[in-house]
Amino acid sequence: MTEPATPLWEVFIRSRSGLPHKHCGSVHASDATMALQAARDVYTRRGESVSLWIVPSSAIIASDPADRDALFEPTGTKIYRHPTFYEVPDEVGHM
Amino acid sequence: MYTQALNEKDAPFTTGRSDDPIKLERFQAIIDAEDKVEPNDWMPDAYRRTLQRQISQHAHSEVIGMQPEGNWLTRAPSLKRKATLLAKIQDEAGHGLYLYAAAETLGMSREEYYEQLLSGRAKYSSIFNYPSLTWADMGAIGWLVDGAAIMNQIPLCRCSYGPYARAMIRICKEESFHQRQGYEIMVTLSRGTPAQKAMAQDALNRFYWPVLMMFGPSDTESMHSADSTKWKIKRFSNDELRQKFIDATIPQGQHLGLTFPDPDLKFDAATGHWTHGEIDWSEFKRVLAGDGPCNRQRMKVRKAADAEGTWVREAAAAYANKRADRQRIAKIAAE
Ligand SMILES: [Fe+2]
Ligand SMILES: [Fe+2]
């Protein structure tokens, strides 16, 4: 291929106002304006979106799956971070 | 199905001799637990290669699949039919894009996959090598071709590879509109003049057998299935899916008052299934090998579209570079 590869962008959609943007896929485009247009055409043909975010894929920093245990395992033992860990006398009612 | 060539070529994969047995065991445990495999996770080479081929062939099929229907866009009988057909074809382009994106997460670029299609190294579904001769074919394609695709794609929504499964969920949501718009065309023609009904019957006659072939060779001949099943890429065999499709489709055809071009077709009350006549596998092999009615035309059109689009991609890249340069200069000047 003599043509350079067209850059990749990640697409995030806000489906309704009040909701967060959520990753929905990716598109190829040579610049941000075209990426936004392509994302609109590819991912929002049925009213799925009220707002779009486009991010260069190369800008995403992801955790390494190999580090999953090291990063996320420790919270498993910290059950005192959840409200159910604490006992409240029945007479007090809902808290 | 859209990836039926997988059932044909190559020897079955020998699960990588080079793969670390401990990693392999852990990988299989993830699959067995119905957990998903994600792009950066460790995976056996053969799993990666199988998916690269399956997802890209699926993508190529969506893209080539726009041609038979595109053929009738300008001659649709009404503005409503034109708008719905156009929307369906747009969806197929979208399906191609979702699938190329999923395939790219396996470490190959879209350009490389696309090059495999254009050079003829990669296959696409045999069904798109049949011509669309009349308007009724738009009905038969939506009803039968998209119907068969749905049968195959619903279990793929639970495929072990996360990006593929997520793409399939999106695609399945859109496919049901495709099948319904096709069936609606068939209903209208079947209830129309005798000539219109004959046109619907003719389309059914021509598409029925090629659609059954979409599910790929019968289980006795199909390779690759063992690994694909173990890895939860494939959940039903070719024959199981074909049977499901036939059972769902025959009553729909009867409702139209049309007949199926299979003299051996009959309902087996004991099993509750329809039994069908022998499929002409020599035709299937011929079309898949490149000798169907439209193979050359489909590739010619695709290559021309690619060549004619080159200047657009080059101009867009040049414009992006120019803008980036200007921004860099402006930034230096401001400092
Ligand atoms: Fe599709
Ligand atoms: Fe479709």
Describe the structure.
The complex is a heterodimer of chains A (95) and B (335). Chain A has 95 residues and is an alpha+beta fold. Helices cover 18% and strands 21% of the residues of chain A. Chain A has a 3-stranded antiparallel sheet. In chain A, a hairpin with a 7-residue loop joins strand 1 and strand 2. The N and C termini of chain A lie far apart (65 Å). Chain B is mainly alpha-helical and 335 residues long. In chain B, 65% of the residues lie in helices and 2% in strands. Chain B is built from 12 helices and 2 strands. Chain B has a two-stranded antiparallel sheet. In chain B, strand 1 (266-268) and strand 2 (273-275) form a beta hairpin. In chain B, helix 4 runs antiparallel to helix 7 (162-190) and helix 6 packs antiparallel against helix 7. The model of chain B is unreliable at 7-15 (pLDDT under 50). Classes of the chains: A alpha+beta (95), B mainly alpha (335). One fe (ii) ion (FE2) binds at residues 62, 92, 95, 171, 175 of chain B.
Question: What is the strand and helix layout of this fold?
Answer:
The complex is a heterodimer of chains A (95) and B (335).
Chain A: E1 8-14, E2 22-28, H1 32-43, E3 51-56, H2 68-72
Antiparallel strand pairs in A: 1-2, 1-3
Chain B: H1 21-32, H2 45-64, H3 66-70, H4 79-104, H5 110-118, H6 136-156, H7 162-190, H8 194-213, H9 225-230, H10 238-256, E1 266-268, E2 273-275, H11 281-291, H12 295-334
Antiparallel strand pairs in B: 1-2
Helix pairs in contact in B: 2-4, 4-7, 6-7, 6-8, 6-10
Bound molecules: fe (ii) ion (2 copies).
Strand content of chain B: under 5%
The sequence of SSEs of chain A as H and E is EEHEH
Backbone shape of chain B: globular
Main sheet properties of chain B:
2 strands, antiparallel
Largest sheet, strands/sense/barrel of chain A: 3 strands, antiparallel
Helix/sheet category of chain B: mainly alpha
Radius of gyration of chain B, in angstroms, nearest whole number? 22 Å
Mean pLDDT across all amino acids of chain A: 91
- Output mean pLDDT of chain B: 92
pLDDT < 50 stretches of chain B: 7-15
Extended strand count of chain A = 3
Order of helices and strands of chain B: HHHHHHHHHHEEHH
**How are the strands ordered across the major sheet of chain B?**
1-2
Oligomeric composition of the shown chains: heterodimer
Separation, N- and C-terminal Cα atoms of chain A: 65 Å
Figure out the total of helices of chain A.
2
